[in-house]
Amino acid sequence: MTDISFENRKIAHALVFVLAAACAFISVTWTKHVGGVATIWPANAIIVVAMLRSPRSDGRLYALALCVMTALINIGDNRPWGVVLGFSLANVIEVALAAGLVRRISPIVNFFEQPGWAFRFAIAIFAAVACSAAIAGGALAIGEGHAWLGGSIFWGMSHLPGLLIIVPMLLALSPGRDRLRLATAGPHRATTLILMIFVAATSVGVFAQSRYPVQFLILPPLLLATYHLNAKGAALSVAIVAVIGSFFTLTKTGPLMLVHGPAATKIYIFQLYLATIFFCALPLGAVLTQRDQKTNLAEQRFQDFRHLADRVGDVLFRADAAGRWRYLNPAYAQMSGFDVSSRLGQPVLDDIVPEDRPALARAQAELTDGTRDEIRLVVSIHRRDGTIRHVEILAYRLDEGDGFGGLIRDVTDQLTLDEQNRQIAAAYETAANTDELTTLPNRRAFFQALGVHLTDGTASAGLTVALFDLDHFKHVNDQYGHPAGDAVLRHIALTVRAAVRERDMVARIGGEEFAILIVGDGHKQAVALARRIVRAVSADSIVLPDGATIRVTISMGLATRMDREDRDLLISRADQALYAAKRAGRNRLQMASVPSTQVLL
User: Fold this and answer.
1) Which residues contact 121 (CB under 8 A, 6 or more apart)?
2) Bridging pattern class, strands 589-591 and 554-560
3) Is-catalytic flag, 512?
4) In whole angstroms, what is the distance from residue 380 CA to residue 390 CA?
5) Rounded distance, CA 251 to CA 525, Å?
6) Where's the PAS domain (predicted)?
7) Is the dihedral of CA 559, 560, 564, 567 positive or negative?
8) By CB neighbour count within 10 A (0-12 exposed, 13-18 middle, 19+ buried), where does 582 fall?
9) 315-415: in CATH 3.40.50.720
10) What kind and span of H or E run contains 122?
11) pTM of the model
12) Digit-coded pLDDT (tens) for 169-213
């Protein structure tokens, strides 16, 4: 209250001392009863609040000032020195214990946020007052002859309500660094004024008459003020009730006049009444404060989410269980060309091209009924300008059947790039497996295909390898030139390719060397096919680039795979058969056999 409310701490200290001294003087002058103790003692509450709101180093100064102030007031009241010293000691111990215990077991940091704070605060105050009452009761017994228990009770009944009521009231009403800072603005001043007028009017109506015990009528306006203003409303309301009720009670008016007994008893009852209604309202104020905190925190997080969602490049969405848009961030407008407001409430499937709707509808139904928890699907959508975009939908089922939500990512450019990369990769793969001159598969492709057939079981249905090369091809290059030789190779490739079936494979595996992979036929059928190829080549005329016409022949070796024969042995047998055909005079087919070979024309 001091260093926070005022920049000049010395002025703050002086104001606290003056206020506490004035309250002490008024209490002793106006409310002292036959026991010699003031009925109302708010001075200690003021000092306790100052100690709680100030650095610990100021505590000694406040305790010393209270000790001196109490001593002077009691000396002026003609008390014996034993009572003066005892009361001074009791007051100092009371404020020191109250401040220390509150700091330890019921800290004032965000104190009105915790419903249990009031209970722990009451325990700390009861303990402090019990110690001071024992000391004060002893001082009265020694100095003035009062009964120790009676003096202790008088002291406790005058100090306890003041601390229980005034300390939390001042804490709630005074500004400070530990006060709760809500994200939203507080109630309008007009609302606060109306509520306080309502509390004051009710208090006047209750305490201005002495015929009916209607103190309970204070509770509705008190609770209403607490509901709207939280702990501050409770503190303001109790302060108003205390001022109005004290005025009428001290002027011997009000429902407490129905209580039989001395005026001190009525004042005690009034203070206990104030403490009771205040401590009933404080937990409610704490609960409402927690509610406001959570509401403000949720609102802040929601605003943060909206702030981030509005800047995310992907579309964030939420749809209800019926599959209608409930939320779309601004990225949707950029992706689709439609305004977000025009799409909310519309079916999700309306944006999807017809051919993709069944798949998304099935996935959406499974997500809604709990069959699956998430979906990841690539579909196409219609933009407002009529173009098609490809998007990836990642959606998750929301709890309690509240539909589903997730994000939508435009993957058109990615799919286009992926397709281009696939085409490039395919082109590279084709180039790596194709002979550039004849466009036939090359050596690498041939042996890859042979390896596949040897491992996938095709060989068991018949697999034959035929190797052939052109007879005297060097003479063609020497006599007609290399362009003519290239033309001959291309012509031979076309001739042989036309003679084989689609399932068979013709490859150029060397300069003038070729290979044929015959799949799915027995030995006799493979021999018949190879014979036709040899004869077709020898019977064909080839027109060279310079217009000359020539004929060429080929020599071929053929090997049908035997049981469990590997690739190398199969190729070796076909190669040996090829060389045997050349040695036998060329322009012929030679079959590899075990243990001998046979030449077929």
Assistant:
1) 102, 106, 111, 167, 168
2) parallel
3) yes
4) 4
5) 132
6) 301-371
7) positive
8) middle
9) no
10) helix 117-144
11) 0.48
12) 787 776 553 444 433 445 567 888 898 899 899 989 988 898 888
**Cβ distance 393 to 356 under 8 Å?**
no
CB atoms within 10 A of CB 83: 23
Residue with tokens 């003087």: 25
Q: Is the pLDDT of residue 560 over 70?
A: yes
d(CA 325, CA 341) in angstroms, rounded, equals: 10
Rounded to 10 degrees, what is the CA torsion of 195, 198, 199, 202? -170
Q: In this structure, what token pair is assigned to residue 458?
A: 């095709």
Catalytic, out of 94, 144, 502, 512: 512
Q: Residue 559 to residues 250, 468, 515, 565: CA-CA distances in angstroms?
A: 129, 12, 11, 11
CATH of 436-591, one of 3.40.50.970, 3.30.70.20, 3.30.70.270, 3.10.105.10: 3.30.70.270
Peptide bond into 347 cis (omega under 30): no
CA atoms within 13 A on the CB side of 153: 9
**In the block, which residue shows the tokens 């002292």?**
32
Considering only CA atoms, which of 476, 479, 500 is closest in space to residue 489?
Answer: 476
Burial of 371 (0-12, 13-18, 19+ CB in 10 A): exposed
Q: What is the pLDDT of residues 236-263, one digit of tens each?
A: 888 788 888 878 877 888 887 877 777 7
Contact assessment for residue 497 and residue 452, using Cβ atoms and an 8 Å cutoff: no
- Asked if residue 62 lies in contact with residue 3, where contact means CB atoms within 8 angstroms, the answer is no
Give the max Cα distance, the chain.
152
Contact 470, 488 (CB under 8 A): yes
